[in-house]
Amino acid sequence: MRVLLVEDDKELGDMIKRVLSAEGYEVEWVQDGFLALKNLSEKDYDLLLLDLMLPRFDGIKICKKVRESKDIPILVITARGQIEDKVEVLQAGADDYITKPFSFKELLARIQAVMRRYKRTEDIIRVGELIINLASHEVIYKGNKINLTKREFELLKLLSQEAGRVVSREEIYRKVWGYSHEEGSNIVDVYIKNLRSKLGDRPAKLIQTVRGYGYKLNVENVS
C-alpha cells in the first residue's frame, strides 16, 4: 500500500516512515505542503498521512484541494487538541485524525480502521459518468447499461483504475491477457475499437489513443 507522508518534523517523519515501512507500507515522505500537492497531482496513493502545520500550504488547504479531485483516505496528524480544531479537520475532508503525542500502535490502528472503511466501497469504480461494479461486472455509462465481454470488461477496468495515466500496450497485454505483447499483433486495438463502439465513444474522447505507446481513460472528457 502506497502512503504519502507529509510531515515537516524530521525526527517524527523519519520515525513514522521507518515504522510503516517495517509493516510493509511503501512510504513517500515530503516535508512541505507544496511538494505534497505536486506529488498528489502526479501519482496515486492509497493513503495520505498529513500533518497540519506545514510550510507553504497547511494541512487544511491540502485536504480541501485533494477532495476536489480525489477519493483517497486522509488521516491527519495534529498537535491541536481543541474540539474546534478537530471539527475543522473533518469538515475539510479528512477521514480521521490523531493528536500528538501518539503511540505508533495507535497510529497503525487508525490507519487500518480508515482503510477498512474505504475497502467497503472499493468494488465500485466511478470515473465521471462511467460506473464499473467489480462484483457484478456491470458497467453503466451515461445512465445506460453496457454489455461487455469478459475481456472487454477487464480492459475497461484496467483503464479506469489507471484513469488519467497512459497504459502501455505491453502493460495491457500482461494484465488483461496474461502474457507479453506479440510483435505485429493488433488485438488490443481491436478491443479498444469494440469498447468505443459499445460506449458510444465516437469521436474518441473517453478512451484516448497515445500514439506509439498505448491508451488512457481521459478524465477531462468523462462527462
From TrEMBL:
GO biological process: regulation of DNA-templated transcription
UniProt protein name: Phosphate regulon transcriptional regulatory protein PhoB
Protein purpose: This protein is a positive regulator for the phosphate regulon. Transcription of this operon is positively regulated by PhoB and PhoR when phosphate is limited.
PTM annotation (4-aspartylphosphate): residues: D51
Matching PANTHER family: DNA-BINDING DUAL MASTER TRANSCRIPTIONAL REGULATOR RPAA, REGULATOR OF RPOS
GO cellular component, one term: protein-DNA complex
A GO term, aspect molecular function: transcription cis-regulatory region binding
Domain Response regulatory, chain residue ranges per copy: 2-115
Keywords: DNA-binding, Phosphoprotein, Transcription, Transcription regulation, Two-component regulatory system
Listed Pfam families: Response_reg, Trans_reg_C
CDD domains: trans_reg_C
Organism: Thermocrinis ruber
Domain OmpR/PhoB-type per the UniProt entry, residue ranges: 122-219
Residue ranges of the annotated DNA-binding region, renumbered to this chain: 122-219
